[in-house]
Write a structure and sequence with these properties.
single chain; 23 strands; five-stranded parallel beta sheet; globular; 462 residues
Length: 462
């Protein structure tokens, strides 16, 4: 027998997107929600993240709309003094626990079913007891797992591991007791850069690190991606100005580098990856001290004393510790209409800020009745990967911003939500710098988007 759960929405996945959607939905509609996740607590991949992880962006841009993560605090010391705080794993998990208790379960608006797996249709099952649950026919299903990231701790190595080779996920790096003569870090993205920075920060000699980087990444200057509209909008305006005259994407990124917007680790190598996490200048300085960089494609196998790669092999120390940082933290499946008869499938809307997109979808679901209109206001964006993907992500995201920003109530809501990087808060005092940024944005956005659309192979909007 299945136990009936009398709710209006079944949200599958209690990670960042599922929590942000649910929070905004119950804030603006009198509904009840069942929140289901296979993990034992809410927070999604943060529950299995490596211990030294931090958000790569300001805490204010992450979490749920009703409760500002980190309280908008500014860092007072350290290499990022003056920039907004970036929460660590413990703070993020505690934050989600508090939001669940005080905003959702406490008021009786949400029933949470952790340790449960979605089966199909309108059902889910307890992984511990096998008890089956079902929601009513009128209940809408919300898929918050479509873009769920992979994490190294839960993703087996994508390469063969031979006898005697020592390979660990990045999560195990903190507790590793031995001191190998060489660390081999495998991966090109944020996890790998975090691992290298962590090792260097604990006194590991840069010459004792081998970094297997199949692709070099472009990264955003963190100092320009801040909850200050003059800074953020000024950066976007300059990006659009440079894009308007760009002949190639490679050329555009070099111009963005000269403008201090984009960063790359090795100035002698043209990156082909543009997932574009943010990076601090101090991190960049550390990363550049590692000179043993292997660019021979993806690892095929790890043997004691040797790596076999797609384009050859390299020798490593006999006692080398291989740190696997390769997992799809950002996925790029086919974009779907967010609203369909089968499910509400959460996806990014504004480029690069998934929590804002999920909260926006929750607000629109609560305040609109027609799914066609909802899809018009919130067309899905994508994540960056290649330079072409990055161009498309920005074009789609800014087109979506124009669509939902034309609605007075959505514009007012988004300007009051700290998750929105482009917001100008109602109590903002204004400044000449902000006025200049807005004027530049108005002048350059049209030409810049048109050129990015051509470089990204996108059709002009109808």
């Amino acid at each position: 027998m299945k136990k009936m759960v009398d709710v209006d929405y079944l949200v599958i996945g209690a990670g960042a997107s599922g929590m942000a959607f649910t929070d905004a939905l119950i804030d603006h509609a009198d509904v009840r929600v069942a929140l289901v996740d296979r993990r034992e607590a809410v927070g999604g991949h943060w529950r299995g993240a490596y211990p030294f992880v931090r958000l790569h962006q300001a805490s204010s841009f992450y979490g749920v709309a009703s409760t500002v993560l980190g309280g908008g605090r500014i860092q007072q010391d350290g290499p990022e003094a003056g920039l907004h705080q970036r929460a660590d794993q413990a703070e993020i998990c505690g934050y989600y626990d508090d939001v669940l208790a005080t905003r959702m379960v406490g008021p009786g608006r949400v029933e949470v079913f952790t340790g449960c797996d979605y089966t199909a249709g309108r059902g889910f099952v307890s992984l511990e007891t096998g008890e089956c649950f079902e929601v009513p026919a009128h209940c809408r299903v919300v898929d918050a797992r479509y873009l769920a990231p992979e994490i190294p701790a839960e993703t087996p190595p994508r390469f063969e591991v031979g006898d005697g080779a020592r390979v660990i996920p990045v999560n195990d790096l903190v507790g590793w007791q031995e001191s190998p003569s060489q660390h081999v870090v495998v991966g090109s993205g944020k996890t790998a850069t975090d691992a290298v920075v962590w090792l260097l920060g604990r006194g590991v000699d840069p010459d004792a690190i081998c970094w297997v980087r199949p692709r070099d990444p472009w990264m955003l200057n963190r100092a320009l991606v801040q909850p200050d509209p003059a800074v953020y909008l000024g950066m976007v305006a300059e990006m659009m100005r440079l894009a308007a005259d760009a002949e190639t994407l490679d050329g555009l990124f070099l111009e963005l580098e000269d403008a201090g917007i984009m960063l790359r680790i090795d100035r002698s190598t043209t990156p082909s990856m543009a997932k574009a996490p943010t990076l601090g200048a101090w991190e960049l300085d550390l990363l550049r001290t590692v000179e043993d960089v292997v660019r021979r494609g993806h690892v095929r196998s790890v043997r004691r004393g040797r790596l076999e790669l797609a384009d050859g092999s390299v020798a490593i120390a006999e006692d080398a510790l291989v740190v696997n940082c390769a997992a799809d933290g950002l996925k790029n499946p086919t974009r779907l209409p967010i609203w369909s008869p089968e499910a509400i499938t959460l996806q990014p809307i504004r480029a690069g800020f998934p929590c804002f997109g999920a909260a926006l979808a929750g607000y629109v679901e609560a305040t609109r009745d027609d799914d066609t209109e909802k899809n018009r206001l919130c067309p899905p964006s994508s994540y960056g990967n290649s330079l072409v993907d990055w161009a498309r992500m920005n074009v789609l995201g800014m087109r979506a911003s124009a669509a939902f920003g034309a609605e007075p109530d959505i514009k007012a809501w988004s300007n009051a939500v700290a998750l929105n990087p482009a917001r100008v808060a109602p109590d903002h005092p204004g400044s000449a710098t902000l006025d200049d940024a807005r004027a530049a944005l108005a002048e350059h956005t049209g030409p810049g988007l048109a050129r990015l659309a051509r470089l990204g192979g996108l059709e002009a909007p109808a």
